[in-house]
Amino acid sequence: MKQWSLCFRVWHWLMAFVIFGLLATVLLRKTFLSWRANSELIVSKLSSFGMSITHDQAVSLAKAIRAPMWEWHIILGYILVALVVYRIILVFTHSGIQNYTNFDTKDLHQKAVSAVYLLFYGIIIIMSISGLLLTFNDKLGLSENFEHTIKELHEFLFNGIWIYTIIHIAGVIIAENKDEKGITSTMIGK
Ligand code: HEM
Ligand code: HEM
Fold first, then answer.
1. What is the 52 CA–ligand 1 centroid distance (Å)?
2. What's the pTM value of the predicted model, to 2 decimals?
């Protein structure tokens, strides 16, 4: 069974926590705090009180209600960028490369698992760079077209993140119950 250094285990659980947080902010943005749904709600509630408001004013209110929650996307985003740097440093440790060496001794399943991890790392790096570009868009003076392309890429790769998260957790549960009993504990303690 593999062993993971304390530094690697800390990195893994911080990463899991930050990814869950980022996915939660996106879920809230698209559901309970959606500006489309809430602006319609504001218009209809105010009209039931005999007050009227324009569509643009309602949208501005709905976005203001959403703003404090979305700030967490950016805060967690910065932590994610720091965790990417932390992971790059871990490449120089045994824990950081053990899944990516001695490929000739690995079976097809182990090779596929390593490939999925590498794909995930690739996506995380692009998410971090595109997220930073979107955050500093005004200061960087990006053209509207470029900003739009970056946003589309960021939104598209979001799918890779949630799909990875589901496959990874399901994979660990299956491994734990089949031939890799104790795999979860290796990522918790020594
Ligand atoms: C909450 C449930 C989770 C459990 C029980 C869990 C458990 C594990 C275990 C046991 C391994 C080692 C697998 C091996 O032997 O190769 C691992 C690796 C890994 N986990 Fe998780 N994990 C969880 C969530 C997450 C989340 C949410 C992410 C990020 C989206 C994540 C990212 C990773 C990555 C990238 C690796 C590969 C490490 C390497 O580079 O070798 N994990 N996880
Ligand atoms: C796994 C990591 C990430 C995921 C899954 C993710 C997901 C998303 C999604 C789905 C959107 C589009 C929301 C919408 O318009 O409905 C978005 C927008 C955005 N993200 Fe991320 N993101 C991640 C990392 C980051 C990072 C690292 C940063 C910056 C440090 C960042 C900053 C932003 C910004 C500024 C926007 C644009 C918000 C707007 O147009 O109002 N994201 N993100």
1. 51
2. 0.95
